[in-house]
Design a protein that fits this description.
Structural class: alpha/beta
Number of helices: 8
Distance between the termini: 31 Å
Strand content: 25-35%
Order of helices and strands: EEHEHEHEHEHHEHEEEEH
Shape: globular
Number of strands: 11
Largest sheet: 9 strands, mixed
Oligomer: single chain
Length: 237
């Protein structure tokens, strides 16, 4: 299966991995990157988020970290097939972040992590999609610890998660000196429950967080919003 990424790149995806989702697309739009920035994608899967960010800024240096070997191999192949020598992939366990990642080695860390605590739902440990959905191998505390180690002082951590985990997210980020600075909720349409939350945190930042206008994907009558067209179709009204 093949996906179009950011209007520039193509991504091959196996049937056992997640396809390109609103989560990654919204996070790539939310993340603030700059020319030449060193970016680490924790739990990169097949590389979709890295490709989306490079579509925004081709001069980024992106390092993906992925525990599942088939997905890591797929991410490396996608980078190579698009001629992106600035996108490298580490096959490793982010829980081993002290040996896996260089301290203070990145300006930006991004992550579209598993959303659900172990034991929730009907998840099977041997199922690759279950590993991607639940914190079996990527607990929230380890994710934030890895981000804090990887980031330089003042670096930014951008992640997408579920709104019902917001208290856990904010507490865990602060415990690792990753101070939440921006929060944006994502809704299918006005009046619908929020289904995603986007958070930007700064390593060593001072307290103080800004709630940004919500990202609405559709109008009440089901039409695509301006934001939807911008982030999915790269159309500016």
């Amino acid at each position: 299966m093949e996906e179009q990424i950011g209007g520039k790149y193509r991504m091959e995806l196996s049937q056992t991995q997640f396809s390109l989702s609103t989560d990654s697309i919204a996070l790539a739009d939310f993340a603030r990157v700059f020319s030449g920035a060193r970016v680490c994608d924790l739990g990169c899967g097949c590389g979709a988020l890295g490709l989306l960010l490079l579509a925004k800024c081709e001069t980024l240096q992106v390092t993906g970290v992925e525990i599942q070997e088939p997905a890591a191999r797929c991410a490396a192949e996608n980078a190579a097939q698009n001629g992106l020598s600035q996108f490298s992939v580490l096959h490793g366990d982010l829980r081993e972040y002290r040996t896996l990642l260089p301290a203070n080695g990145f300006d930006i860390v991004v992550s579209n992590p598993p959303y659900y605590p172990p034991g929730s739902g009907h998840l099977r440990r041997e199922d690759s999609l279950s590993i991607a959905r639940s914190e079996l191998m990527c607990p929230l505390d380890a994710l934030c610890a890895a981000a804090a180690r990887a980031l330089r002082w003042g670096g930014r951590f951008f992640l997408v998660h579920k709104p019902e985990r917001l208290t856990d997210l904010l507490c865990t980020l602060r415990a690792h000196r990753l101070e939440p600075k921006r929060i944006r909720l994502v809704r299918h349409h006005a009046g619908a429950d929020a289904n995603l939350v986007l958070i930007a945190a700064r390593r060593g930042g001072k307290p103080g967080v800004m709630l940004e206008p919500e990202l609405l994907l559709f109008t009440p009558d089901g039409q695509e919003t301006t934001d939807y067209r911008r982030i999915y179709h790269h159309q500016e009204d």
